[in-house]
Amino acid sequence: MNFSLYIAKRYLFSKSSNNAINIITKIASIGTVLGSLALFLVLSVFSGLQTFSNKFLNATDPDIRITSTLGKSFDCTDSIQNILLSTKGVIAFSKVIEERAFFKHKKKEHIAYIKGVDRNYTNVIRIDTLIYSGQWLDFDRNTALVGNGIANKLSIGILNYGDPLTVLVPRPGKRYLTNPNKAFRQSNMQAVGVFSVSEELDHKFVFTPLSVSQKLFNYNKNQISAVDIKTSPNLTRSSIQILKKKLGDSYTIKSREELNSVFYKILNTEKLVAYLIFTLVLIIAIFNVIGSIIMMIIDKKENLVTLYNLGASLKKIRRIFIYHGFLLTMGGLFMGTSLGSILIFIQNKYHLFMITPTIPYPIEFKMANFFLVSITITLLGYFAAIIASSKISKELIE
After folding, report:
1. Which of 302, 310, 298, 320 is nearest to 3 (CA)?
2. 98 and 171 in one domain?
3. What pLDDT score does 1 carry?
4. In this structure, are 207 and 243 located in the same domain?
5. What angle do the packed helices 78-86 and 236-247 form, to 10 degrees?
6. How far apart are CA 95 and CA 118, in angstroms?
7. Judgement on whether residues 249 and 270 belong to the same structural domain of the protein
8. Residues 145 and 237 in one domain
9. Are 392 and 317 in contact (CB under 8 A)?
């Protein structure tokens, strides 16, 4: 066995005759365990939040969205549809209209987005799985699927034929209209279902058949706002490159990550800041390790002199305390991550902490987080041991 490692193990697991050194060593060990635990849990919480948010984004945003670079709408011609059908990785696509509109029900009013979709929409985005009351759209009638927030605000009932949902959109033009009734196009729709995704989206969207929206906005048969596309999981990037090459600069093509770039930037920034803050806490805890090693060096001075006289080199003696500090931090890392893994399992199984009465606080075990914590603790522990062992000199042991 390695001589320095053997002595380091003996020093780590044997008690010192000085009780103060034992207390300092325990404090250093506990600080490393708690620091590892805190860093691991924080990173796991952010991973859980990202997975939790991705579930909602997957239910509301397509893998790829095509919009016009030159205006709010464009004509989805047969040539564009043929390109989509022939592009590798494209599973399904749906034509969409998305515009702001004014909604009225009885005496209540609300401004939100009307989203006209075709029959193929649920093959691209499974919004129909988020309906908790009523049913999906009837494309042969003026029907609407309303967000839960809008339904509550306007007091909309399902299949209430006596009180339809009125949608108004401004007529385009520059002339001044003296009659307000002529300033808007309007359409009466029957709410057939209510969906619930998140508080923001529940107050934002009302889904209608594409033909109804085209008529309301005075669009022609092929005129739309966007094309939403579902792709094979591993072919999204290559599909985007192919579509950009075939469609040219007249169209903007974005992935789901690009559509929600602000959200991902905020989440990644917050995760980085949290990592840096808890790493700083760990650095402070590592100072206890340095103090513990230095106190151990002072306490074992006579033993070190004996080892030096028996032929142990100064380098080997320093290496004893490098191993000692390394083993101390590795023990803290193992205990911290093990305890963190147990807490993650308990939270996911028993839901001890809740965001709402029905949604547990998300937390997820990821090997990437484990490796990041391990590398951080290992490096900090190694540098702490190097700093402490550098205090050993010939003057100390001669």
Report:
1. 320
2. yes
3. 54
4. yes
5. 150
6. 6
7. no
8. yes
9. yes
Residue type, 263: F
Contacts of 3 (CB under 8 A, 6+ apart): 312, 316
Q: Cα–Cα distance between 168 and 99 in angstroms, integer?
A: 11
Q: Is the pTM of this model over 0.70?
A: yes
Nearest to 214 by CA among 77, 118, 112, 79: 118
Residue-range definition of the domain harbouring residue 140: 62-259
3-state SS, residue 68: strand
d(CA 32, CA 291): 13
Residue ranges with strand state E in 232-279:
251-255
233 and 133 in a common domain: yes
Q: How many of the other CB atoms lie within 10 Å of CB of 8?
A: 22
Rounded to whole angstroms, the Cα distance separating 299 from 313 reads 19
Q: Are residues 255 and 272 in the same domain?
A: no
Query: Are residues 241 and 101 part of one domain?
Result: yes
**Amino acid, single-letter form, for residue 148:** N
Cα–Cα distance between 11 and 116 in angstroms, integer?
A: 73
Residue 315 and residue 4: Cα distance in Å, rounded? 10
Q: What does pLDDT average to in each consecutive run of 10 residues of the chain (398 residues)? A: 80 77 86 94 94 82 94 94 94 96 92 96 92 93 94 87 87 60 84 90 94 94 96 92 94 94 91 94 89 87 84 88 90 95 95 85 94 95 90 77
Tokens of 80: 């564009």
- Spatial distance between the Cα atoms of 164 and 146, rounded to a whole number of angstroms: 12
Picking from 227, 259, 291, the residue at the C-terminal end of a domain is 259
Residue 295 tokens read as 């106190």
Helix, strand and coil in the chain, % to nearest 5: 55, 20, 25
